[in-house]
Amino acid sequence: MIETIQWTDSGVVMIDQTRLPREETYVTCTDYKQVAEAIRSMVIRGAPAIGVAAAMGIALGMQQAESAAEFDEICDTLARTRPTAVNLFWAIERMRRLYSELQARPIEEIRAKLVSEAQQIRLEDIAINECIGRNGAPLIPDGKSVLTHCNAGALATAGYGTALGVIRAAVASGKKIDVFADETRPFLQGARLTVWELQHDNIPATLITDNMAGHFLHSGRIGCVVVGADRIAANGDVANKIGTYSVAVLAKENSVPFYVAAPISTLDLSLTNGDQIPIEQRAAEEVTHVQGVPVAPDGTTVENPAFDVTPNRYVTAIVTERGVARPPYVESLRKLVT
Fold first, then answer.
1. Contact 74, 57 (CB under 8 A)
2. pLDDT at 223
3. What is the dotted CATH code of the domain comprising 5-130?
4. Would you tell me how many other CB atoms lie within 10 Å of the CB of residue 235?
5. Which of 20, 128, 143, 273 has the highest CB neighbour count under 10 A?
6. CA distances from residue 30 to 34, 78, 290 in whole angstroms, order as listed
7. Sequence-distant (≥ 6) Cβ neighbours of residue 271 within 8 angstroms
8. What is the mean pLDDT of each run of 10 residues along the chain (338 residues)?
9. Rounded to an integer, what distance in angstroms lies between the CA atom of residue 128 and that of residue 118?
10. Which of 51, 259, 253, 68 is nearest to 149 (CA)?
11. Cα–Cα distance for residue pair 126/160, rounded to 1 Å
């Protein structure tokens, strides 16, 4: 299994996803500010993975804090890294609740229990992803191709993956499938990360550019689309990597099922619809350059939203560790969390 992130005596160790697939290197964060920067710069990315990273960052920060008064600043620093993925805030809130229960205890006890909680979040995430895989595998048609967008695999989680977890589980069940991976401009998570993961697991993968998705969805070769999510509103609107909305519309036009795989922690039932989801804006250089090489004229005006929102009418089902939700999502999602 790919080790996305680990707690060690030396610090929080994570695979550097900005360097894949050219080289497999690991970064050791020795303080919480380095963890925050790793999240911000996408050394680690994917909603569940950055939730685990945030929890470990808080635990790491408190190992070095001179007083409990620093706890809020540590949490706030990590919360400012990326605004869209709700798992980040879910993990921070979980650590806050534990700290609130412990704050009258000796600082050494607080430190130890925060480390234990962060490690538990990591282990739970892997187990949750495996459940998502088992719940989603029956939806994957045998003998067809699966289209995915961005990277929702082991690299986007503590291990195994959400969308790729469903694919892995389908393969493990004996289904003969192959995967079409959108390159996912501008950060190329599909090209760099998803294909690398699938090759790692010997699952047949074909890389396509983002603007080829409609062609292949129309061809009849694609049996379904499976993607991850960074936040899901109460009505089933889904925020995911930019370009997901376009794929969902194309899937609907061509009568191809569009599935979203995500843990319960990705649900944000406080939001009535996707219009309320904050969308992260990233640096222009990600669009004007590819791997540091300029591909646009100097001074080009750029818009670079990292995510878009897919309206629920395009979502066939949402696969979670507690089961599969189908429309109407206002009812089915709420049943999963109660």
1. yes
2. 98
3. 1.20.120.420
4. 18
5. 128
6. 7, 15, 30
7. 231, 233, 234, 277
8. 92 97 97 98 97 98 88 97 97 97 91 97 98 98 98 97 98 98 97 97 97 98 98 98 98 98 97 98 96 94 98 98 98 96
9. 15
10. 259
11. 6
pLDDT score for 66: 80
- Token readout for 12 is 């929080």
Cα separation, 97 vs 285, in Å, equals 38
Q: Of the candidates 241, 225, 263, 325, which has an alpha carbon nearest to the alpha carbon of residue 126?
A: 263
Give the count of beta carbons closer than 10 Å to the beta carbon of residue 324.
Answer: 18
Provide the residue type at 158 as one letter.
A
In order of 44, 205, 233, 263, the CA distances from 334 in angstroms are 30, 35, 11, 14
- Quote the CA–CA distance of 156 and 71 in Å, as a whole number: 26
| List 182, 230, 237, 268, catalytic entry | 230
- Assign domain 134-337 to a CATH class: alpha beta
CA-nearest of 158, 132, 180, 130 to 317 is 132
Three-state DSSP class for residue 134: helix
**Does the annotation count 230 as an active-site position?**
yes
Burial of 4 by CB count in 10 Å (0-12 exposed, 13-18 middle, 19+ buried)? Answer: buried
Q: Look at residue 67 in the predicted model and tell me its pLDDT.
A: 79
Cis check: omega of the bond before 327, within 30 degrees of 0: no
What Rg, from alpha-carbon coordinates, does the chain have? 19
DSSP 141: P
Report the candidate in 229, 236, 227, 314 with the shortest Cα–Cα distance to residue 271: 236
Taking CA 198 as the corner, what is the angle to CA 193 and CA 202, rounded to the nearest 5 degrees? 150
Contacts of 296 (CB under 8 A, 6+ apart): 287, 288, 289, 302
Single-letter code of the amino acid located at 172: A
Sequence spans of domains, the chain: 5-130, 134-337
